[in-house]
Design brief:
- With 225 residues, the protein is of the alpha+beta class.
- It folds into 2 domains: 12-74, Winged helix-like DNA-binding domain superfamily/Winged helix DNA-binding domain (Arc Repressor Mutant, subunit A, Orthogonal Bundle); 83-217, Umud Fragment, subunit A, CATH 2.10.109.10.
- Helix content is 16%, strand content 30%.
- It contains 3 helices and 11 strands; from the N terminus they run H-H-H-E-E-E-E-E-E-E-E-E-E-E.
- The longest helix is centred in the N-terminal third of the chain and has 17 residues, at 12-28.
- It is elongated.
- It starts with 11 loop residues before the first helix and ends in an 8-residue tail after the last strand.
- The relative contact order is 0.13.
């Protein structure tokens, strides 16, 4: 799960306090006390804790109400609860293969990822290694997937009939997002657009399933479908 974003200009102790406030709030459903922050962050003086909290407040990272006990909150805390970060590995389009997501995602940056509230994720997908691709084209428009949307996928090499998959067709040098159907003589990759014909792939032709779609992030408002 993702912790508080590291912010430019914050020292290590500032960041440690922010992360502790978030983790404590998530576990106990209320903010920590000044003394609890000091104990966790190895600060013996409550005055010093208050000094750091004042700095974080002035920088806009927290809000404080000194009239009540534990009167603080993170200003960038998500209203959806825990967040997870998913790497965006590229655009699903003709010309380049979709990279298989690595088992360790430490190499991707915030600029190459999207954040998803875990509360909005399908329960069976929580904790999985997921990856994302930006859609180009309108072949899945009737499935409410439009040009510019982002699809969240779980790595997969096989699929059942009717599942939406990302496929690499090496002999055609193209990637595609389609409904998958296994037929007698091969495979049918069905678009969700009545103006487009399915892609028919013979059993003798190469076809690599790279992932199954588990969620769509809309282009307009970026809320979960």
């Amino acid at each position: 799960m993702m912790m508080v974003r590291k912010s430019k200009g914050l020292g290590e102790r500032h960041q440690k306090i922010l992360e502790f406030i978030e983790s404590y709030q998530r576990e106990h459903k209320h903010p920590p006390s000044i003394r609890e922050i000091g104990e966790h962050c190895d600060i013996s003086s409550t005055s010093v804790v208050n000094y750091y909290l004042d700095q974080l407040e002035k920088a806009g990272h927290i809000e404080r109400d000194r009239k009540i006990s534990r009167g603080m909150r993170l200003t960038n805390a998500s209203p959806f609860g825990d967040m997870m970060r998913v790497p965006v590995l590229g655009v699903i389009q003709a010309g380049e293969p979709i990279p298989i997501p690595p088992s360790d995602f430490n190499s991707f940056t915030a600029d190459d990822s999207v954040e998803i509230a875990t509360s909005l994720m399908p329960a069976r997908e929580k904790g999985r290694d997921l990856f994302a691709l930006q859609v180009q084209g309108d072949s899945m428009i009737d499935a409410m997937i439009n040009d510019g949307d982002i699809v969240i996928l779980k790595p997969a090499q096989e699929a059942r009939n009717g599942e939406m998959v990302a496929v690499w067709l090496s002999d055609k040098n193209e990637t595609t997002l389609k409904y998958f159907y296994k037929e007698k003589d091969g495979y049918r990759l069905q678009p969700a657009n009545p103006t487009m014909k399915p892609i028919l792939v013979k059993k003798s032709e190469p076809l690599e399933i790279k992932g199954k779609v588990v969620m769509v992030i809309r282009k307009v408002d970026r809320y979960m479908a």
